[in-house]
Amino acid sequence: MAVTGNGNRDESGPGPLAGLRVVELAGIGPGPFAAMLLADLGADVVRVDRPGGGGLAVDPVYDLTNRGKRSVLVDLKSADGPARVLDLVERADVLVEGFRPGVAERLGVGPADCHARNPRLVYGRMTGWGQQGPLAQTAGHDIAYIAVTGALGMIGNPGEPPAVPANLVGDYAGGSLYLVIGVLAALQHARTTGTGQVVDAAIVDGTAHLTAMIHGMMAAGGWQDRRGANLLDGGCPFYGTYETSDGGYMAVGALEQQFYDTFTELLGIADVAPARKDLARWGELREVVAARFRTRTREEWTAVFEGTDACVAPVLSLREAPHHPHLAARGTFTDFGGITQPAPAPRFSATPSAVTGGPARPGAHTESVAADWDVPALLPKDV
Questions:
Q1: Among the listed residues 143, 84, 128, 137, the one whose alpha carbon sits nearest the alpha carbon of residue 108
Q2: Which residues are the active-site residues?
Q3: What is the mean pLDDT of each run of 10 residues along the chain (383 residues)?
Q4: Fewest Cβ atoms closer than 10 Å to its Cβ: which of 14, 223, 320, 333?
Q5: Backbone angles phi, psi at 336, to 5 degrees
Q6: Sign (positive or negative) of CA dihedral 61, 62, 66, 69
Q7: What is the predicted pLDDT for the residue at 57?
């Protein structure tokens, strides 16, 4: 817990962002995840939930994207709703919202309203299509955003439909992480100049940005614009996944020659494998590798490759991952409130972060936020 300059308590957690105040206007997907990351890093994140809830039907007890936050209930459509949010904004460093373009303005909590009360505020906007453009007002989800950027079309086997990578590539990598990067950069600018700004984080922009290296490779002639035909998309026989005798899978990433040599030796095919640089024989090489992997179980192959430079690892399920010896030793996952979950990342030598609170239940922290942020208007009229 930190103490702000005005003497009020701040429910920041441990981490490099301790003392930072964030207002999150409740939404779904990448906005809440971005705010969770800020909370993981120590920020005091107050989520403004709407009465009656909204969004996806996830039990708040298990909504880990709300861990480490506090929640107040405000009806932004009520007469005094916007004023109560602006009272919070006046005391905040950052606001995060994920409405369609123009909605926050219509509700009275858009950038102009907020900056009139707090010129130093960093106003983070999270959308799929962005604040401008022909599709800005159109509904969408992760899969559509990554589809138009070319990212979805890269993933999967040739001759088959593109494989859907959950909502990790768009919502979280192209969306949440870029919003957090933008917010932190804008915070640096605000602290240097005293002036806040708007961060327009669009999933289409972030996801497109993630493909920068691939575009360079394509321009150089080193990447074919189709699935399963390239070095890093499963087209290469020594960069992909192979089924084992028990129906498990092993992931192979033996790109460099020295790692490939270790891989083929431990796999037992060094004397029969076709030359790896002969692209015309990649199909034959794949069959040799696949046939060999099918002779043992995933556990047996894991024992063969564990601790070597062959760049081979077992493909684990979500429930199996926390028990992997390396992840367990590092504490990559943690248990809090009876839920096994990923620990905060990245790690800091001087200001380590930790999960300090479970998912915030809507409205559960109205009294503490009203006191700590000195916003008595949050309290019900009869309190």
A1: 84
A2: 141, 171
A3: 44 88 96 98 97 74 96 95 97 98 97 98 98 96 98 96 97 98 98 98 98 98 95 96 98 97 97 89 95 98 98 98 98 96 97 94 95 93 61
A4: 320
A5: -145, 130
A6: positive
A7: 63
Find where tokens 């002036």 sit.
Answer: 195
Q: In the structure encoding, which two tokens stand for residue 285, read together?
A: 């090489």
pLDDT at position 53 is 72
3-state secondary structure the chain: CEECCCCCEECCCCCCCCCCEEEEECCCCHHHHHHHHHHHCCCEEEEEECCCCCCCCCCHHHCHHHECCEEEECCCCCCCHHHHHHHHHHCCCEEEECCCCCHHHHHCCCHHHHHHHCCCCEEEEEECCCCCCCCCCCCCCHHHHHHHCCCHHHCCCCCCCCCCCCCHHHHHHHHHHHHHHHHHHHHHHHHHHCCCEEEEEEHHHHHHHHCHHHHHHHHCCCCCCCCCCCCCCCCCCCEEEEECCCCCEEEEECCCHHHHHHHHHHHCCCCCCCCCCCHHHHHHHHHHHHHHHCCCCHHHHHHHHCCCCCCEEECCCCCCHHHCHHHHHHCCEEEECCEEEECCCCCCCCCCCCCCCCECCCCCCHHHHHHHCCCHHHCCCCC
Question: Are 40 and 383 a contacting pair, CB within 8 Å?
Answer: no
Residue 362 token pair: 């809507």
